[in-house]
Amino acid sequence: MEESAPPEPSRPANDATQHIGYLLKRAQAALRAAMDKALRKHGLTVPQYATLELLALHPGMSNADLARATFVTRQSGNVVLRGLQEAGLIARPATADHGRARPARLTEEGHTRLATVQAAVHAVEQRMADALPPRRVTALLTDLERIATALED
């Protein structure tokens, strides 16, 4: 069987600012800045918001699971959970039933705060989507998922 030549780079090597990785990082940094700005008005950080969203979808997640899903270390995840608990937005049992996991759940105030900030976050996401022709949004989501899957080995 004949081996094919490696594919050409997606962008010329002499301009790193035009590489896929650079442009993804630039978009991620811009997204993070816009999210920080929108959430700051509501007294939340991006990891706190992400934690609230995940707990709304999956009540009872452990610190380790939340940390993985919000892209922070377990130690940072624990700091996020403590802050949310002190703010009355989540509740966790004082002790674990078994092992060390203390499953977290949104409080009524947590649900209320999440509902309030979702509009601000969705406005940021809409700004991103508005930058693309509507038919490209679905393709972009598919492409981003493929990129992440390709690099997760």
Describe this structure in words.
By secondary structure, the protein is mostly helical. It contains six helices and two strands; from the N terminus they run H-H-H-H-E-E-H-H. A two-stranded antiparallel sheet has the order 1-2. The longest helix has 23 residues, at 108-130. The protein starts with 19 loop residues before the first helix and ends with a helix. 17% of the residues are buried.
Please identify the structural class as seen in this structure: mainly alpha
Count of DSSP E strands? 2
Biggest sheet: strand arrangement: 1-2
List low-pLDDT spans. none
- Shape by Cα distribution: globular
Q: Which band does the percent of strand residues land in?
A: under 5%
- Summed over residues and divided by their number, the pLDDT gives a mean of 89
Order of helices and strands: HHHHEEHH
N-end to C-end Cα span: 26 Å
Rg value: 19 Å
Number of helices: 6
The largest sheet, given as strand count, sense and whether it forms a barrel, is: 2 strands, antiparallel
Helix content: 55-70%
How would the blueprint of this fold be written?
Elements: H1 20-40, H2 46-57, H3 63-69, H4 74-86, E1 90-91, E2 105-106, H5 108-130, H6 134-151
Antiparallel strand pairs: 1-2
Helix pairs in contact: 1-5, 2-5, 3-4
Summarize the structure.
This protein is mainly alpha-helical. Helices cover 61% and strands 3% of the residues.
Q: What descriptive keywords fit this protein?
A:
153 residues, single chain, 61% helix, mainly alpha
